[in-house]
């Protein structure tokens, strides 16, 4: 299950509605980050509600109650849209008959004599738990568990499961989330085919970079540098829309981890009509724009992009050998 996380319902309930409201937003943020890492499916027990709306956050208080109340609060509009998007994703939930996964294995937490199916699922699928912050035991980024495996020698061992519950745990697992995202983007075709899911804040123009990715024949290390640059551009685009940035600057990409050099064109290019024309590309809305911004990749390859500061949009136009100097 390379694209799933395990919903840990044992991390509920919250003590009161106010705590539930705050904790739900933290949980939404976990799901949002997981989606950008390619982890799009929530794995749940067979007896769990297959809708987030039906999840009981506190005694008698459900996610659907939060949704109804949030409709009157402007600052929660984006979170309501996220929930609606999650609810309409197909599939969002996938039921796991964990007994058939391993009826000789049990996984539990220290101090408890019986295991929990959600822990077994996280161990078996080698993926994250997605927990709420209602109970202190489930706020940690790593959960220590015991594993009883009747077919192993010795039959009991200790393991550590990865857990996502808040901003601190997301930061703790940032490298692992990036690794899992990159595992979904190992070929040029992967990047092109999954652009809508994994690069929702970028537009990859089909008239050049689309053609380049679908017929890629250059070295893989060049492709991976391009992928890393796209990941950073996506991260910037998301944060730009969220208001973390008020404009575009090259240094913002470097701050977000871009290892390659990024710059505009030199005066030699800017003042030469023929060279400048090579860097003009058509957008889907019919505009022709000058894509002077570019990331310098290996072996002379470049990735050119255009930043629309009015619409806060980034268009990636060209991926290929260095254009004429």
What does it look like?
With 325 residues, this protein is α/β, with parallel strands linked by helices. The chain is 39% helix and 23% strand. The protein has 14 helices and 16 strands. It has helices at 17-36, 63-70, 77-88, 98-101, 117-124, 167-172, 174-183, 188-193, 195-198, 206-214, 220-242, 250-255, 267-270, 273-278, and strands at residues 4-8, 41-44, 56-58, 61-62, 93-95, 105-108, 129-131, 142-149, 156-164, 202-204, 261-263, 280-282, 288-290, 293-296, 301-308, 313-321. Strands 5-2-1-7-9-8-6 form a seven-stranded mixed sheet, sandwiched between helices. Strand 12 (280-282) and strand 13 (288-290) form a beta hairpin. The longest helix is centred in the last third of the chain and has 23 residues, at 220-242. The mean pLDDT is 91.
How many helix segments?
Answer: 14
- What would you call the shape? globular
> Mean pLDDT, nearest integer?
91
Q: What would you call the structural class?
A: alpha/beta
Strand portion: 15-25%
| SSE string | EHEEEHHEHEHEEEHHHHEHHHEHHEEEEE
Unreliable runs, pLDDT <50, ≥5 residues?
none
The count of β-strands is 16
Strand order in the largest sheet: 5-2-1-7-9-8-6
Largest sheet: 7 strands, mixed
- What percentage of residues falls in helices of 4 or more residues? 25-40%
Oligomer: single chain
Gap between N and C termini: 48 Å
Number of domains: 2
Gyration radius (Cα, Å) is 23 Å
Quick structural summary:
This protein has 325 residues and is of the alpha/beta class. 39% of the residues lie in helices and 23% in strands.
């Amino acid at each position: 299950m390379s694209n799933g996380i395990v919903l840990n319902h044992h991390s509920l309930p919250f003590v009161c509605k106010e705590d539930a409201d705050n904790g739900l937003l933290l949980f939404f943020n976990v799901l949002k980050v997981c989606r950008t890492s390619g982890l799009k499916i929530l794995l749940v027990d067979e007896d769990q509600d297959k809708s987030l709306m039906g999840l009981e956050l506190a005694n008698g208080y459900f996610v659907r109650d939060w949704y109804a109340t949030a409709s009157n609060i402007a600052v929660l509009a984006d979170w309501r849209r996220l929930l609606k998007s999650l609810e309409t994703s197909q599939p969002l939930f996938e039921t796991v008959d964990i007994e058939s996964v391993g009826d000789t294995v049990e996984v539990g937490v220290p101090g408890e004599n019986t295991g929990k199916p959600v822990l077994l699922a996280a161990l078996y699928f080698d993926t994250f738990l997605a927990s709420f912050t209602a109970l202190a035991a489930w706020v940690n980024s790593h959960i220590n568990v015991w594993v009883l495996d009747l077919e192993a020698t010795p039959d009991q061992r200790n393991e550590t499961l990865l857990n996502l519950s808040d901003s601190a745990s997301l930061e703790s697992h940032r490298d692992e989330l990036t690794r899992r995202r990159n595992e979904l983007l190992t070929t040029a075709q992967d990047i092109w085919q999954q652009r809508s899911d994994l690069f929702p804040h970028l537009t990859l123009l089909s008239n050049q970079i689309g053609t380049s990715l679908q017929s890629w024949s250059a070295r893989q290390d060049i492709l991976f540098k391009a992928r890393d640059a796209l990941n950073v551009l996506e991260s910037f685009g998301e944060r730009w829309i969220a208001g973390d940035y008020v404009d575009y600057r090259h240094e913002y990409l470097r701050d977000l981890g871009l290892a390659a050099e990024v710059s505009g064109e030199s005066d030699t290019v800017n003042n030469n009509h023929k060279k400048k024309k090579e860097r003009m590309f058509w957008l889907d809305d019919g505009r022709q724009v000058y894509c002077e911004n570019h990331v310098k990749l290996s072996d002379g390859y470049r990735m050119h992009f255009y930043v629309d500061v009015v619409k806060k949009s980034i268009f990636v136009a060209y991926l290929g050998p260095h254009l004429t100097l």
